[in-house]
Amino acid sequence: MPDPDLLIEAARAVVDGTERACTVAVTDGRISGLDAAAAAGPGTEVLRLGADTALLPGLVDTHVHVNEPGRTHWEGFEHATRAAAAGGVTTIVDMPLNSLPPTVDEDALTAKRAAAEGRCHVDVGFWGGAVPGNAAALPGLWRAGAFGFKCFLADSGVAEFPPLDRPGLVAAMECIASFGGLLLVHAEDPARIGSVDGSGYDAFLASRPDRAEVDAVAAVVAGAERTGCRTHVVHVSSADTLAELAAARDRGVPVSAETCPHYLTLAAEQVPSGATEFKCCPPVRGRANQDLLWAGLASGTIGCVVTDHSPSPPELKATGSGSFAEAWGGIASLQLGLPVVWTEARRRGHDLADVARWMASGPADLVGLGRKGRIAVGADADLCVLAPDEPFVVRPERLHHRHPLTPYAGRELTGVVRETWLAGRRVDVAGPGRGRLLHRGES
Predict the structure, then answer these.
(1) Rounded to 5 degrees, what angle do the CA atoms 90, 95, 96 make?
(2) Which residue from 418, 438, 440, 433 is spatially nearest to 80, judged by alpha carbons?
(3) Nearest CA to 434 among 126, 81, 60?
(4) Could you tell me which residues come within 8 angstroms of residue 285 by beta carbon, excluding any fewer than 6 positions away?
(5) Which residues contact residue 42 at a Cβ distance below 8 angstroms, ignoring those fewer than 6 apart?
(6) Maximum Cα interatomic distance, the chain, rounded to a whole number of Å
(7) Which one, of 433, 360, 441, lies nearest residue 123 by Cα?
């Protein structure tokens, strides 16, 4: 056994679902030993972390809209992956929209990879898309390494990525089940979505009621039960869906779910009139609903917390008019997801192991990346050094997103990411990108 390249000694580390002291050995970019098996040799670099820090696995964010190629002026791989690294995220999986072309066939996936090559500061995988008329392309996308397929049941916001109707959803499920794939569903029923006028948040919230999610999730569960398709409901905002999801899980239906930092920490009651930086679809709901989402996380009905990072230029957020009817629906939070969730999680009695499960190992397991999201022998040495008790105030000018418009501006959070390590090396967000482009199924 060769000597490790690096030893990291941490008084606090999240290992096997618990927080404890740990020594982590790294060899050739992977974790090669823990504790007694981790011994330094003559050429081993030894890093002793401060007592005020904790070592976490690098986070895995499986819901990120990078928007390149085609809409790089919205975000792009360089900006998005810098933000990810600055926030302790070491792996992202990019959504098939809002790039041009959308990732709905192999040629588009090739174009996406070409746009990302050499520009990424963290590892990046890619989702394919399921849209009307592209069922024949799905097996090829799967073979080409896409991690699964995203679909919408309501308007996606971009014309080139139309939604599936109910028969189209079932047809996509049947196709994807035939080769053991994974379908992600934006679950809102278009029949329940109304119009909205003006700058008041209450009107926007009323236009996308809980019932829109409830009815759509019921359709998703029914389709998954009928077809056996492994299905994941993205960005659950309404706690009214949790009973259906829990019952489906208890029956053995292959359905899982995620939620996002903004649904766990922002509340409709606090959104000022015209504050379109809070607009997302489905919407941020009330405080009572937020409490129930946390209960869904605690019970395991919701298994992942991912950002749904969906940035746009400020003019698309209608920052001038403050119109929720006109504004793009998306929140950019890739750099802030960890401290946002940790600040609220610890207030509610959760620990760092819970956060690592929701934001690292849970998303990694969803997409079959067993070497990611955990501190374990054989795993990639993707790590986050967090000062969990250190407060800071969110200053947009310190964010790495291309357009740092955020509903968290001015908010005091707890938990500062001191360092991010990718494959056993510190990430320098000012330097060249070292991230790899990932393919589903690779070892």
Answers:
(1) 145
(2) 433
(3) 81
(4) 205, 210, 237, 238, 239, 263, 267, 268
(5) 3
(6) 68
(7) 433
Distance CA 132, CA 168 (A): 7
Prior bond to 289 cis, omega within 30? Answer: no
Closest CA to 358 of 345, 348, 370, 347: 345
Helices (H), 101-232: 106-116, 138-143, 166-178, 201-207, 210-227
Per-residue exposure over 338-369, b if at least 16 CB sit within 10 Å of its own CB, e if not: bbbbbbbbbeeebebbbbbbbbbbbbbbbbeb
Token pair of 227 as six digits: 């077809």
For the record, the structure tokens of 328 come out as: 């793009």
Judge contact between 309 and 65, C-beta under 8 A. Answer: yes
Per DSSP, the chain holds a count of helices (H) and strands (E) of 12, 17
Q: What is the pTM of this model?
A: 0.97
Q: How far is the CA of 157 from the CAs of 69, 348, 409, in angstroms? A: 17, 35, 25
Residue 305 neighbours by CB distance under 10 Å: 29
- Whether residue 383 contacts residue 82, with contact meaning beta carbons closer than 8 Å, is answered with no
pLDDT tens-digit readout, 389-399: 999 999 999 99
The Cα 31–Cα 26 span in angstroms is 4
Order across the sheet with 89-94: list the strands: 59-64, 89-94, 123-126
Q: Which secondary-structure segment (H or E) carries 22?
A: strand 18-27
Q: What is the mean pLDDT of residues 100-126?
A: 98
Instruction: Using alpha carbons, list the distances in angstroms from residue 101 to 73, 117, 288.
Output: 15, 17, 40
What letter does residue 318 receive in the DSSP assignment?
T
> In this structure, are residues 236 and 302 in contact, taking their beta carbons and an 8 Å threshold?
yes
Q: Which residues pair with 56 in a beta bridge?
A: 384
Tokens 């330097």, located at residue: 431
Helix (H, G, I), strand (E, B) or coil at 59: strand
Given pLDDT bands bounded at 50, 70 and 90, which one contains residue 200?
confident
Alpha carbons within 13 angstroms on the beta-carbon side of residue 25 total 19
Cβ neighbours for 344, distance < 8 A, ≥ 6 positions apart: 264, 265
Place 146 in a pLDDT band, splitting at 50, 70 and 90.
Answer: very high
**With 60 as the cut, is the pLDDT of residue 237 above it?**
yes
Strand partners, 255: 231
Quick one: which of 98, 103, 58, 154 has its CA closest to 308? Answer: 98
**How far, in Å, CA of 77 to CA of 407, rounded?**
22
User: Could you tell me the two tokens for 166?
Assistant: 């109910």
DSSP 329-382: --B--TTTHHHHHHHHHHHTT--HHHHHIIIIIHHHHHTT-TTSSS--TTSB--
